Amino acid sequence: MDEYTRIWKQILEEISKNVTSVDYDMWFSKLEPISINFGKLVLVTSLKSVQSILNTPEYQKYIMNAIKKVDNTIVSDYIIITSDEKDSYLTSKEPKVETVINDTKPLFNDKYTFDNFVVGSSNNIAKSAAFSVAQNPGNSFNPLFIYGGVGLGKTHILHAIGNYVLSNNKNTNIIYATTEQFVNDYIESLRNNKTDKVYEFREKYRKADILMLDDVQFLQNKEGSQEALFHTFNDLYQAKKQIVFTSDRHPRDLAGLEERLKSRFQSGLTVDISSPDLETRIAILQKKAYQKNFNISKNIIYFIAEKITSNIREIEGALSKVIFFCQLNNKDCADDLELVMHALKDELNMDTKVLNMDTITDAVCAYYNITKDEIKGTKKTKNIAEARQIDIYLINDMLSVPLMSIGQYLGNRDHSTIIYARDKITEQIKSEGRIRMVVKDIQNMINKN
Ligand code: ADP
Ligand code: MG
Question: Is any ligand 1 atom within 6 A of the Cβ of residue 123?
Answer without folding.
Answer: yes
